[in-house]
Design goal:
Layout: E1 17-23, E2 29-35, H1 39-45, E3 47-50, E4 64-69, E5 75-78, E6 81-89, H2 100-109, E7 118-128, H3 147-161, E8 166-171, E9 177-182, H4 187-207, E10 211-213, E11 227-232, H5 245-256, H6 258-265, H7 271-274, E12 287-288, E13 296-298, E14 308-310, H8 319-335, H9 367-375, H10 378-383, H11 386-404, H12 409-415
Parallel strand pairs: 1-6, 12-13
Antiparallel strand pairs: 1-2, 3-4, 4-6, 5-6, 7-9, 7-10, 7-11, 8-9, 11-14, 13-14
Helix pairs in contact: 2-8, 3-4, 4-8, 5-8, 6-8, 6-9
């Protein structure tokens, strides 16, 4: 339920506390909780915080900043609590350049693509039991009742109570894997909703003694979790659901910048265990209509169901930066009049590019390659503030470097007894 705010307080009986929430450059949530009576002051003057928390794992020196709540995002979350999304600003009220939410706001305000752009996300995740294993072993779209699907429905219902329109939920392919589909939303409300949706899934799972994970690929030999975004706009798709000329250029832009986008869409070491892992996980810069392993898929649906589906993201992505990157890449395709290459409908696992007229470029194979590609992409770099980009690079490079020095069970099993 979305709140109303009259400038003096929250118009709900029984609300005692309000959590002022924001995310760091890696998309991890943070909050400061205030008595409800202090909310109006926070809207008017801001709430002091240590702004270095926005830097996440790349945190350096403490920096005095302010949280400014966006009252349009105010929702009641139950048990006397409410929640609101915030921007991070400097003490003089100017935007903090490294705030991911502000980055997306800037892209939207710049008119990077059609004003009617919306996207509907497919949010995939796993539910784990107390021992850390999958809660069940269902199958894709199976009609199976149990604790897992009951928790998913409860989480979806709580999302609806918080103003997030849920289109559907169902079992996914992997053991203990589920999907919640959200209705289409504009860019900034969509990013806000994804942050809240993930938090609600975690909370409901914990209430039932389970653990929800949005890790890209928790187990070898099993599918990974994606965050597919079905993008829609009258400028990009005609009434029959076919790509317009600008729609073709928009897709061409997302393909042109695909390697750099990977650093925003598949943001950590584990993300690359999902990519290249199966026939439905994208591994190459191609688009198609029926090939579910393509990076971008233009659906065969017509009318309102038509969409441009970006399949390269996983749920660990920072939604503000991911959506900003997709909009900037697509807008560049339109502005530069980029030509859309032919679609590739073949399964890439058995495809030989040397023997076919269609050529394709692979997506990055690991996090370092993705970060290098992002730094080499002037269009994406210009859309991200240098301070944010620096912190993002520092944190992710350190993560990749730590991983390179880590000895896995696979290595011990393979090499321990070798002469």
């Amino acid at each position: 339920m979305t709140a109303t705010f009259d400038g003096a307080g929250i118009e709900w009986d029984g609300v005692e506390w309000v959590s002022l929430t924001y995310v760091d450059v890696f998309g991890l949530g943070h909050s400061v909780t205030l008595p409800a009576a202090r909310f109006a002051t926070a809207v008017e003057r801001g709430e002091p915080i240590d702004g270095s928390t926005v830097e996440g794992r790349a945190r350096r020196l403490e920096t005095d900043m302010l949280l400014v709540p966006d009252p349009t995002t105010l929702v009641r979350t139950g048990d006397g609590l409410a929640r609101v999304a915030c921007n991070v600003v400097n003490l003089n009220g100017s935007p903090f350049a490294a705030d991911p939410r502000r980055i997306l706001q800037g892209v939207v305000e710049a008119g990077a693509v059609a004003s009617d752009w919306t996207a509907a996300p497919e949010l995939e995740f796993f539910l784990l039991d107390a021992d850390g294993g999958p809660v069940d072993r269902g199958g894709y779209l199976q009609e199976v009742e149990g604790l897992g699907i009951a928790v998913v429905r409860a989480a979806a219902a709580r999302m609806g109570a918080c103003g997030i329109d849920v289109a559907a939920c169902h079992l996914e392919t992997g053991p203990g894997q589920y999907e919640i589909d959200l209705a289409p939303q504009p860019a900034l409300p969509l990013a806000d909703s994804l942050i809240l949706a993930k938090q609600l899934v975690r909370e409901v799972a914990a209430e039932h003694g389970l653990r929800a994970t949005f890790m890209a690929r928790p187990w070898a030999g099993e599918p990974g979790s994606g965050l597919h975004l079905h993008q829609r706009s009258a400028r990009l798709l005609d009434p029959d659901g076919k790509l317009t000329d600008d729609g073709g250029r928009y897709v061409a832009g997302q393909l042109t910048h695909a390697r750099g986008l990977s650093a925003l869409a598949a943001p950590n070491v584990n993300s690359y265990k999902r990519l290249h892992s199966g026939h439905e996980a994208p591994g190459a810069v191609v688009w198609a209509q029926s090939n579910r392993g393509a990076l971008v898929r233009v659906s065969a649906y017509r009318g309102e169901g038509a969409s441009i589906e970006y399949r390269g993201a996983d749920p660990s992505a920072n939604p503000y930066l991911l959506i900003a990157g997709l909009l900037v890449a697509g807008a560049h395709g339109i502005e530069a009049d980029l030509e859309l290459p032919p679609p590739l409908e073949e399964d890439l696992q058995g495809f030989d590019p040397a023997a076919d007229s269609v050529r394709f470029e692979p997506l990055p194979r690991d996090l370092d390659q993705a970060l290098d590609a992002l730094l080499a992409d002037d269009v994406l770099v210009d859309a991200l503030d240098g301070q944010l980009l620096s912190r993002l690079m520092d944190g992710r490079r350190a993560e990749a470097d730590t991983y390179r020095g880590y000895v896995t069970a696979w290595e011990r099993a393979r090499y321990l007894d070798e002469p």
